[in-house]
Write a structure and sequence with these properties.
32% of the residues lie in helices and 23% in strands. It is an alpha/beta fold. A hairpin with a 3-residue loop joins strand 3 and strand 4.
Length: 341
Amino acid sequence: MRKSINKKLVSVLAAAALSLSAFTAFGSSAETENTTEAAAPAADDTKNAVAIDKDAFDKLIQSGPTASDDEIASSEWASAVKKNGVLRVGGTRTSFLFSQLDETDNQVRGFDAGLYQLLAKYILGDSSKYELTQVDSSTRESVLTSDQVDAVFATYSITPDREKVISFAGPYYTSQQAILVKEGNTDIKSVEDLSGKTVATQAGSTGPDILAQYAPDATVQEFENDIEARTALEQGRVDAYVTDYTLILNAIVKNPDKYQVAGDTFGPEDNYGIGLPKDSDGVQFVNTFLKTIEDDGIWSDLWKVSLGDRTGITTVPKAPVIGDAAAETEAAGTEAAETEA
């Protein structure tokens, strides 16, 4: 029978370190069992992380396509962006793989950042003509419904509840659950090996329910955020950590030689979409844009420079089917991997 232990950690240091973690949901913390002192949190070794190839990224963005005047005129949404002369984007600047600010040149690079810069070029002929408003999981819908932004790019899971108030283009990326273990672990090679093990996951995510289905004999410990879960893994208080694959990739690239992925991804697909105003004809326009960059090979090249080259993964995933309503409805919307604070 599945056991569930919900433990929250107390650590002043953890609160100070939260801003280092990508795609995490932050919360309060309480004390742990069997310890009298707060444990030091997992620290991301960003100085040794694999940086994005800035020249390759910038060159790829400049190679992006440009829509014709007739294509833009056919969309009220795109016409408004063209008239304003700038694409107003809701996004993040602290997602190491998807949208990271480089303070040396004040440029944001990564998979999501590349997509909205390509879209700016597609509409306005210039990838730099965008304005970025920082969002988190609590503001992504509101910036669209209040007309503060034209689109949201923020590892934004497509869910039925969100589709009640906004619309989504895409999906443009698909993730699942994965297993993170310490480097050198040979005991856990697949989800089947979690039986009898103590496994960390994030409270409030779909992780507990997915583990109940795929690893019912595991002992599950729920933590408030990514750093707390990885701290438990590093200290040996749990055997593995199950969360969204995107979040796991982020941890690996920021901490070389500390972690590894055990086995294949599993569980329901989590489809990321581009948030747009409800019932906007921008959905069709942006879907056409996505199809164009997929057909041109730019989507694959952007994945390579943003994720593949930095994680050592050489097989480019297949892009999800754009506008696949069935996939969108099925998406579970794992909160832990959708955004950063």
